[in-house]
């Protein structure tokens, strides 16, 4: 996520430095605007096609299992299973940008964190999944981490 803007900014800078200085100002501004648009488009594509990957997730008394529905350069395996003993925390997070909740599950072995949210028009299945997830969280006494706001409030208080 950081490499893309740095790479595009570097190429843009090389282009700008190689142009003659007597060119009109609007040429330089146009090049800069085009590079920013390319950055935004590339980052949006990365987020929607590489980072966010649809998956099928199932849970049972044995643990949680999910299968990625498409390949991704960021994720080495397409299938993942973890018993409840390897789940260190489950938290529900509200995304103010989308207005939707998602669940963050942190695993200890391997040390990864996965975020799960409902796919549009599949909210009923997602509700069942998240209700079952809450049941197993309570059954196996998996922690509910405090939100950052509470951590900062507690830190500020003493």
How does this model look, in words?
This protein has 158 residues and is an alpha+beta fold. It has two domains: 3-51; 55-147. 44% of the residues lie in helices and 24% in strands. The chain has four helices and six strands; from the N terminus they run H-H-E-E-E-E-E-E-H-H. The chain has helices spanning 3-18, 25-51, 123-139, 148-157, and strands at residues 55-59, 63-68, 79-83, 87-95, 100-107, 112-116. The chain has a three-stranded antiparallel beta sheet. Helix 1 (3-18) runs antiparallel to helix 2. The longest helix is centred in the N-terminal third of the chain and has 27 residues, at 25-51. The protein is elongated. It starts with a helix and ends with a helix. The relative contact order is 0.09. The model is unreliable at 146-158 (pLDDT under 50). The chain crosses the membrane at residues 28-47. This is PH domain-containing protein. Keywords: Membrane, Transmembrane, Transmembrane helix.
């Amino acid at each position: 996520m950081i490499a893309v803007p740095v790479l595009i900014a570097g190429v843009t800078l090389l282009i700008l430095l190689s142009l003659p200085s007597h060119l009109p100002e609007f040429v330089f501004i146009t090049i800069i605007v085009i590079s920013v648009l390319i950055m935004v488009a590339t980052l949006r594509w990365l987020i929607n096609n590489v980072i966010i990957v649809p998956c099928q997730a199932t849970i049972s008394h044995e643990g949680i299992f999910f299968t990625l529905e498409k390949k991704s350069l960021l994720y080495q395996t397409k299938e993942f299973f973890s018993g409840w003993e390897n789940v260190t925390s489950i938290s529900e997070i509200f995304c103010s940008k989308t207005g939707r909740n998602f669940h963050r599950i942190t695993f200890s072995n391997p040390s990864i964190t996965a975020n799960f949210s409902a796919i549009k028009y599949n909210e009923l299945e997602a509700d069942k999944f998240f209700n079952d997830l809450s049941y197993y969280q309570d059954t196996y006494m998996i922690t509910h981490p405090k939100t950052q706001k509470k951590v900062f409030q507690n830190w500020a208080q003493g």
